[in-house]
């Protein structure tokens, strides 16, 4: 009992064991998602309307000061007929004086698949003339509680005449 090691070994070992036990739980998980958003201002699959602008609802989203509301289909593949797993609901506001960038604020509401019932909150600038636009993921619910992240947006398909677009969102989020 007079050997000091008898006391010091447990004193060192206990904090180490505690750290090993709790360490993995404190680590963030990272999830990557690739989603396609189908946005259409015309036709049977119309999912977005301009509601305000310099000429009222007839103003083009390409003009500064125009507000658009959308409820777009979200799929896992670029094919618009592929299985819908969510909706992208919110708004775009043309917020660049020359008309070349939107401000986006919308929720991705997962209605099917792995993340059914959860949401992601997207917010940021969309200078849509650029090939790749980075945006932020500010929060989420359900599986995505406490989430933070970013995404890269690219235009997969664009029909300017009929104002239809398929947007690829490549999202990387960290969460508990
Ligand atoms: C998604 O973005 C990450 C970088 O954030 C990249 O490494 C990955 O290849 C991209 N995936 C797709 C399918 O574009």
From TrEMBL:
Dirigent proteins impart stereoselectivity on the phenoxy radical-coupling reaction, yielding optically active lignans from two molecules of coniferyl alcohol in the biosynthesis of lignans, flavonolignans, and alkaloids and thus plays a central role in plant secondary metabolism. The keyword Lipid biosynthesis does not apply. The chain crosses the membrane at residues 6-23. Belongs to the plant dirigent protein family. It comes from Tagetes erecta (African marigold). GO terms for biological process: phenylpropanoid biosynthetic process. The lineage of its organism: Eukaryota, Viridiplantae, Streptophyta, Embryophyta, Tracheophyta. InterPro entries: Allene_oxi_cyc_Dirigent, Dirigent. This is Dirigent protein. One of its GO terms (cellular component) is apoplast. Gene3D superfamilies: Allene oxide cyclase-like (2.40.480.10). It is found in: Secreted, Extracellular space, Apoplast.
